[in-house]
Amino acid sequence: MPVFRLSKEELIFPAPALAEDSGLLAVGGDLSVDRLLLAYTHGIFPWYNPGEEILWWCPKERFLIFPRDIHVSHSMKKYMKKHTFKVLLNRDFQDTMHHCRIKREASEGTWISDEMEEAYLKLHHAGFAVSVEAYEEEKLAGGLYGVVIGRCFFGESMFSEQENGSKIALIVFSRFLEQRGFLFIDCQFHTDHLEHMGGQYVSWDRFEDLLREGTVSGEVQG
């Protein structure tokens, strides 16, 4: 099945169910706020190497964390009792996203390019992208960022500056989302780390139902 080519002039995506088994759905288009919102509302997201054409993905099995099911291990509970953290929402979205980029560039490489940073900052200014930062003794310990539409959170990336920094941010944020009736955290793809935190696969049909229900209403407030 050929991959669909998008035009910058036309704001449209092919049906998500037409994605390849790998999850690849389309190529091209742009990263405008309107296109990103249309994409995420239908379970589609951009992921590509810097300098290359934009690739749009929609895995048919989705890896989610349900906020109420966030897993906190026994060792993590002990760690949290011994350390005092402050977790903030939207302290500095641009800085948090850039931290994620730097950490990934230093390890396995990153898809977070200048173009991506600029696009998601615009999405943040429009009220649809948020960052979460964990501090210990006024020092940045870790954080994450992602996209919020209705009662759905689409996680993009996370980083740690010290042990368990990103885990603390995710655990506290999950509880925050649960209190506000959010349906899921979309992890997009499986990782062992996220599975350990409570991530699980759901079918496309179930994910699509959750999308319909969750994108109707809801917001994240500090």
CATH superfamily of the largest domain: Leucyl/phenylalanyl-tRNA-protein transferase, C-terminal domain
Number of DSSP-assigned strands: 11
Mean of all residue-level pLDDT scores: 92
**Uncertain stretches:** 217-222
Structural class: alpha+beta
What is the first-to-last residue Cα distance? Answer: 44 Å
| CATH 2nd-level architecture of the largest domain | 3-Layer(aba) Sandwich
**CATH class label of the largest domain:** Alpha Beta
Number of domains as seen in the coordinates: 2
**What's the CATH topology label of the largest domain?**
Aminopeptidase
Helix content: 25-40%
The Rg value, from CA coordinates, equals 17 Å
Total helical elements: 7
What would your notes on this structure say?
The chain has helices at 33-41, 74-82, 93-105, 114-125, 165-179, 192-196, 204-214, and strands at residues 4-6, 24-28, 45-46, 55-57, 62-65, 85-89, 129-136, 139-149, 152-160, 184-188, 200-202. With 222 residues, the chain is an alpha+beta fold. It has two domains: 4-60, Leucyl/phenylalanyl-tRNA-protein transferase, N-terminal domain (Alpha-Beta Plaits, 2-Layer Sandwich); 63-214, Leucyl/phenylalanyl-tRNA-protein transferase, C-terminal domain (Aminopeptidase, 3-Layer(aba) Sandwich), CATH 3.40.630.70. The strands form two sheets. It has a seven-stranded mixed beta sheet with strand order 6-7-8-9-10-5-11, with helices on both faces. Strands 1-2-4-3 form a four-stranded mixed beta sheet. The protein starts with a strand and ends in an 8-residue tail after the last helix. Residues 217-222 have low confidence and may be disordered.
